[in-house]
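HOLO CASE FILE
Compound: manganese (II) ion
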Amino acid sequence: MSNKKEWEALAKTLLYEPAYPADAKKALTQEANAFCEGYKQFLDRAKTEREAAAEGERMLRAAGYAPFADSVRYNPGDKVYFVNREKSLVAATIGTAPLEAGVHLNIAHIDSPRLDLKPNPLYEKAHFSLLQTHYYGGLRKYQWPTIPLAIHGIFCKADGETVKVCIGEAEDDPVFCITDLLPHLSKEQNDRKLNEGIKGEELNVLIGSTAVDDPDIKESVKLNTLVLLHEKYGLVERDFARAEIEIVPAFRAKDVGLDRSMIGAYGQDDRVDAYPALLAEINEKHPYFTTVCVLTDKEETGSEGVTGMQSSYAFHFLRQLCQSQHADVIRTLQHSKCLSADVTAAYDPSWDSAYEPMNGTYAGRGIAIFKYTGAGGKSMTSDANAELVAYVTQLCDEAGVAWQIGEMGKIDLGGGGTIAKYVARHDIDTLDVGVPVLSMHSPFEVTHKADILMAYKAFCAFNAAQK
Ligand code: MN
Ligand code: MN
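Model generated. Tokens follow.
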């Protein structure tokens, strides 16, 4: 080794230099911007798991997907789907390879942290009408007061009729809110620890302040609220017992930054992966391996429940598909591969002490791969095989997909899990990938458009794999 040029050539070959793909290729920004217009619409139409499942079903039907029937023998290129109890969704395109060669699964979740109503939520105090909530998922309670909120969900009436409710989204709709103390009187609250700054029982939603005409009626403000709900939806107070009502931020998805390079919106964990995964499924017309996209529910509370990934619904689908195609289900599972598509924490320059810079995942550097998640000593993690990381990264490299790999943050600060382990337990090779997010689980999460495009391209490459 004699001269500087040779050392530089060697450095280029041997060292890895992280890069921001949009810096090097300006056309990428345009492509990402165009892709994200549809994504923002999806976010605005799908603020709950039910709405996301319905919007997903609408997109699938428009793309020619037929309801799955376990009695039908399907041909390569056939597209089928089913909706699990209005809250999770499975879509598949039959490949040219036999099922026993394995299927390629992209799984993302469509539930997000939010405030649910309690079963007996409505009360009156100080001439206000309020709703008690019970938070869903790992949210930071202090972030939810003093922002405009919308009410989404369904009521099942005593006679079994289901009524959909959505208030706070239309331009002229009223919105709702949770109040907080003024700084002038917050001396005691200021001494609380941050995670108790607002307590669960203080997350009460303000929904009215007008009384019915008769001053002798007790709880006349609460009664007026019920009169309004009855006029519009035919509801009575007891119907709250048979309801799933979610309180979510009322604002829409917006571009963030003078350069419009980012998106700020509620519920991007994990619709920022669900939308690209669904589009990649729709756009794969003739896969070699059968592709399966699952948009699942209940990830934020541990994937329990009949619509979560610990339920068998997606695996029942695979069994039924195998049966209809006369394929052995065990062989099919053994040879299958899954991308567990969920968000990662984006390195935050204002909170850099929480991150480990060499292993952070950065907004704008492409889709993030997490070989493992979990907490402490990798507890509760699925931990993908190096061979699977090699397989997926090779597909990404061949397709020009920018990818990065890392960990959530500093080892001993916390951690988290994904659905990966609930898939891996079925003998399916599973790897966590996803879009990095700033302010994850907050009412206004921020993502980078280039990463969203890269996630889409990664899912497409995985679906298009020939080996
Ligand atoms: Mn998630
Ligand atoms: Mn989450």
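CASE NOTES: The longest strand covers residues 114-125. The chain has twelve helices and 23 strands.
CLOSED: yes
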